[in-house]
Write a structure and sequence with these properties.
With 289 residues, the protein is an alpha+beta fold. The chain contains eleven helices and seven strands.
């Protein structure tokens, strides 16, 4: 029997002719990303963020991240900063923390962290919100200044309109021997044998007795003022924010919420347009509690 070997068909595609047996995909956008450091310091309250489970795309995590970067830059026109979330673990092919930063004001920034994790054959994507704003420092400055002013005013009224000073002087006079207690009381209250004692003089002389005698009223006043300021709504900050030309707390929260919804929609559209993945057959979306 004669065996005839037929020649292989020729191809005009130089890429196919020169392609190696295995070719590693090049993810230029992923490789060019840099870490972004952004520590959250402002609480917005309860915001429900999405978590995604995408079926059968775990092995293609690098490609999915690449396509997400393309979708973000296409939809936003390059107005957002894209990089890695420096605070999270970053392992190619296993875990990729993509961070997208939106700058509402140079001192007020919002970031959405999309944590891509390969879980067996599936891809898990968790959304996290990072907010950094000088509204935190403004709130602290307003709280401390208001607290100090109210405490001084209320305690001054309490001190001048009650017998607390005489009660304090009487307690200190009782420390003296019985025959000298009257002279000690006169020294404290009327300035006999010197100047009249102030609250600071009593504190220096016997801090323990001073705090035991005077600790109750200041504590109650301070607690009431602190509770009052804590319960005040955030809207009271809109006046200093307007003067500083800053976004007020409501504006900042609305921006953060809209930004989270925008990134969620971009990811959903990318899955449908690039991979033809839709709920519920190709993926599952849940919202964090």
């Amino acid at each position: 029997m004669t065996t005839i070997e037929l020649p292989l068909p020729e191809t005009n595609d130089p890429v196919a002719a020169e392609a190696p047996a295995e070719q590693k995909p090049q993810n230029k956008r992923v490789d060019s990303l840099r870490p972004i450091y952004l520590r959250s310091n402002y609480k917005l309250g309860k915001i429900r963020l999405p978590h995604w489970t995408v079926y059968h795309l775990g092995a293609r995590i690098e490609e999915v991240v690449e396509q997400m970067i393309v979708a973000i830059r296409r939809d936003t026109g390059g107005s957002l900063q894209v990089g890695w979330a420096a605070e999270h673990d970053n392992q190619p092919g296993i875990s990729r923390p993509l961070r997208v930063v939106s700058t509402l004001h140079p001192l007020h920034r919002v970031a959405i962290d999309m944590i891509f994790c390969a879980e067996g054959p599936d891809l898990y994507v968790r959304f996290e919100l990072v907010t950094r704003s000088w509204l935190t420092y403004l709130k602290f400055a307003l709280f401390t200044s208001s607290f100090a002013a109210l405490f001084i005013a209320l305690y001054g009224l309490f001190y001048m309109n009650t017998g607390v000073y005489k009660s304090l002087a009487l307690e200190f006079a009782r420390k003296a021997p019985t025959q000298d207690s009257g002279l000690a009381y006169a020294k404290y209250t009327s300035g006999a044998f010197g100047e009249r004692w102030t609250l600071l003089d009593f504190l220096r002389d016997d801090p323990k007795l001073f705090l035991t005698t005077m600790g109750g009223p200041p504590t109650i006043i301070a607690g009431a003022i602190g509770l009052l300021l804590y319960k005040l709504p955030r809207e009271w900050m809109r006046f200093p924010c307007k003067w500083l030309k800053w976004p007020n707390p409501n504006t900042f929260k609305n921006h953060a919420t809209q930004f989270a919804v925008r990134m969620d929609r971009t990811f959903s559209m990318m899955l449908g347009n690039v991979y033809s993945v839709f709920e519920p057959t190709g993926c599952r979306r849940i919202e964090s509690e």
